[in-house]
């Protein structure tokens, strides 16, 4: 790697660690460490939500999917955009208001328990278990993305690259908690947007855009209803992603929610357009010498098109995408271990200092688990993300909507919805052929919703008959 690229890359990493160190002394209470004291401004909440949402798949997985499969993968971007908008429009303001009003909840399991007055604590414990299980997989996907970047850029072995990437991310998350994660995500979101606009713009002078029309008849296209429905179904996942939902809970002023929504959606639309164009334009650029690994199309283009200084900045954008999601996921897992398991079940009167340091220890523990899951270099980023995204979307998404929009939802229905959604993802995932080729999020979301609706109506009717 050229020295200018290396210097740019190293300076970026140091800047992120500096932000973590800056917020180290500002975490006096657990609320500060895992929710930032509910003091995020609209721009920071918006871009940190977007950056933590998109992860490495925005610069690796999505361009790779467009590069390998062509136009059909745009349906995924369409589904995500619709889902994100609905999440900001209907879930965000209600969750921000109710999470504070109902026991000042700090985590999603905490919110569910308070909302349903669940004295059995089964909703909290089940939710925490699902968070730990699926975030192990989700965090692993981010570490795989980081390892691909370090491996390709520095010529390191996959496993050495994996360890270095994990060490960088854990360092500032360990130090600064939620505020460090949110502010680094804010700057990383800006960098990701710049990279995804600059790359396709520079590519325009190197390709013949008329070749894009050939994708419509490309033999790799599979535009059956199951393929289209599966890609669109990604949008359902937004309602249940804890690392995105906590950004809504942390906003300083509920009245500024529309501003945050507009910023977040503008960033998302521009970023997705850039990722789509990078994949499609890259397919044209490398038509005569196809890449063996489609997910490296963005990396390959930056190294060819730009001078070393600019290449270093654009490569840092991939690390930004990885870090912005992994740090949030590590923090949510730490919150689940600390707030939803340790304090809820083991040590109710634990001091704030004890809880903060336990959260920091949990960050390291979860990172080690993710390293184990990511150790196989054959893992594909989008496959890992798809599994975890479906798990959270199906387990928490329907219940989040029913909790905020339907006062008739019962506690038993809530627990049944969580368990049925997660179980359906586990059962559906390995099945193949026919209807089972449908992305597991769609059937799992529907089954969970039907169970919540049915159980609630039956219970409410029984109560009415008794009275």
Characterization of the model:
Helices cover 75% and strands 0% of the residues. The protein is mainly α. The longest helix has 46 residues, at 158-203. The model has no long low-confidence stretch (mean pLDDT 83).
Percentage of helical residues? Answer: over 70%
C-alpha Rg (nearest Å): 22 Å
Average pLDDT confidence is 83
User: Residue ranges: pLDDT <50 for 5 or more in a row?
Assistant: none
Strand content: under 5%
The total of helices stands at 17
| Strands, count | 0
- Output the structural class: mainly alpha
H-E order: HHHHHHHHHHHHHHHHH
From the spread of the alpha carbons, the general shape counts as globular
Largest sheet: none
Amino- and carboxy-terminal Cα gap: 75 Å
Question: Helices and strands in order, then pairings?
Answer:
Blueprint: H1 3-22, H2 30-35, H3 42-54, H4 61-69, H5 74-101, H6 108-115, H7 122-154, H8 158-203, H9 225-232, H10 242-250, H11 257-285, H12 297-305, H13 308-346, H14 352-374, H15 381-405, H16 411-428, H17 441-466
Helix pairs in contact: 1-8, 1-13, 3-8, 3-10, 3-11, 3-13, 4-11, 5-9, 5-10, 5-11, 6-7, 7-8, 7-13, 7-14, 7-15, 7-16, 8-11, 8-13, 8-14, 12-13, 13-14, 15-16, 15-17, 16-17
């Amino acid at each position: 790697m050229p020295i200018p690229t290396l210097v740019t890359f190293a300076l970026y990493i140091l800047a992120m660690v500096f932000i973590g160190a800056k917020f180290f002394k500002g975490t006096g209470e657990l609320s500060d460490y895992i929710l930032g004291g509910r003091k995020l401004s609209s721009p920071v909440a918006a871009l940190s939500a977007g950056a933590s949402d998109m992860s490495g798949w925005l610069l690796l997985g999505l361009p790779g999917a467009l590069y390998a499969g062509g136009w059909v993968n745009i349906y995924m971007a369409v589904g995500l955009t619709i889902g994100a908008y609905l999440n900001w429009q209907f879930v965000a303001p209600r969750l921000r208001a109710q999470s504070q009003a109902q026991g000042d909840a700090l985590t999603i399991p905490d919110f569910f328990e308070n909302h349903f007055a669940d004295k059995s604590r089964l909703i909290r414990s089940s939710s925490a278990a699902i968070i730990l299980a699926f975030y192990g997989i989700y965090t692993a996907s981010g570490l795989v993305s980081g390892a691909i970047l370090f491996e390709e850029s520095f010529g390191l072995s996959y496993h050495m690259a994996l360890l270095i990437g994990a060490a960088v991310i854990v360092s500032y998350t360990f130090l600064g908690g939620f505020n460090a994660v949110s502010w680094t995500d804010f700057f990383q979101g800006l960098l990701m947007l710049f990279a995804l606009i600059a790359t396709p713009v520079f590519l325009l002078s190197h390709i013949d855009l008329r070749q894009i029309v050939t994708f419509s008849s490309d033999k790799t296209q599979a535009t059956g209803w199951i393929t289209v429905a599966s890609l669109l179904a990604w949008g359902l996942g937004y309602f249940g992603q804890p690392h995105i939902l906590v950004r809504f809970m942390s906003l300083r002023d509920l009245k500024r929610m529309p501003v945050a929504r507009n910023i977040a959606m503008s960033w998302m639309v521009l970023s997705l357009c850039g990722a789509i164009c990078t994949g499609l334009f890259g397919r044209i650029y490398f038509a005569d010498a196809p890449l063996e690994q489609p997910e490296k199309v963005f990396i390959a283009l930056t190294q060819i098109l730009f001078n070393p200084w600019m290449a270093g900045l654009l490569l840092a954008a991939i690390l930004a995408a990885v870090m912005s999601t992994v740090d949030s996921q590590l923090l949510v897992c730490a919150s689940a271990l600390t707030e939803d398991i340790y304090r809820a079940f083991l040590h109710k009167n634990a001091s704030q200092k004890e809880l903060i340091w336990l959260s920091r220890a949990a960050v390291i523990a979860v990172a080690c688990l993710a390293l184990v899951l990511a150790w196989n270099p054959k893992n594909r980023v989008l496959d890992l993300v798809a599994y975890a995204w479906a798990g959270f979307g199906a387990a928490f998404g329907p219940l989040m909507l029913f909790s905020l929009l339907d006062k008739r939802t019962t506690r038993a229905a809530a627990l049944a919805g969580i368990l049925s959604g997660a179980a359906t993802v586990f059962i559906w995932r390995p099945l193949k052929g026919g209807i089972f080729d449908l992305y597991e999020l769609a059937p799992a979301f529907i089954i969970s919703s039907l169970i919540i609706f049915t159980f609630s109506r039956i219970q409410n009717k029984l109560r009415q008959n008794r009275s």
